[in-house]
Amino acid sequence: MRVIAGKFRGKKIDIVGIDSTRETQDKIRGAIFNSIYPYMDNKKLALDLFSGSGAMGIEAISRGVESCIFNDLNYKAYNTTLNNIKSCKIDNFKAYNLDYKKCLEELNNTKFDIIFLDPPYKLEVIDDIIEYIINNDMLNINGLIVCEYENNIKEHNLKIIKEKAYSYKQIRIYLKEE
């Protein structure tokens, strides 16, 4: 797997390589970033809540986001993220090895410009996470939430700017308008 575009373009990213972690394929990652490109100006802080290899957050930094917070409860995924960050020589990051709820609580007073949500599908927690983000005002105006999921999720008080199915994987991108 490689970084698709930006300052780290072509840089190899290690995958986690365990059954509980699904890597976002280059094709899908490219489609996501092409969809959010018009909204990428002045994005300062991203959250990759279920980071796996860290590919989404690394791609965001590669494309101009100033900083990213990575989190994964799985220790192998957490270490893979750290190794990929080190390999790309990224120094504007924080990384956590926490349950997603504890991570959100830890970051409760933080406002993000982009949030990537790709939890294990069996958890079916995206709706709860989005509600938490909205209720705790964790997303800046013109901020984005990028969701990868298998089963349907609710519509939220955010504008949907993209929906697409890739086999069993669904992508939905939300925008917080003024």
Helix and strand content put the structural class at alpha/beta
The CATH class label is Alpha Beta
Terminal Cα span = 36 Å
Count of spatially separate domains: 1
Beta-strand content bin: 25-35%
Q: Helical residue percent? A: 25-40%
Strand order of the largest sheet: 3-2-1-4-5-7-6
Taking the sheet with the most strands, its summary is: 7 strands, mixed
Quick summary of this structure?
The chain contains five helices and seven strands.
List the helices and strands and how they pair.
Blueprint: H1 26-36, E1 45-48, H2 55-62, E2 67-71, H3 75-87, E3 93-96, H4 100-106, E4 112-117, H5 126-135, E5 139-149, E6 159-166, E7 169-175
Parallel strand pairs: 1-2, 1-4, 2-3, 4-5
Antiparallel strand pairs: 5-7, 6-7
Question: Can you characterise this structure?
Answer:
The protein has a single domain (26-175), classed as Rossmann fold, CATH 3.40.50.150. Helices cover 28% and strands 25% of the residues. It is built from 5 helices and 7 strands, in the order αβαβαβαβαβββ. Strands 3-2-1-4-5-7-6 form a 7-stranded mixed beta sheet, sandwiched between helices. The chain is globular, with a radius of gyration of 15 Å. The model has no long low-confidence stretch (mean pLDDT 93).
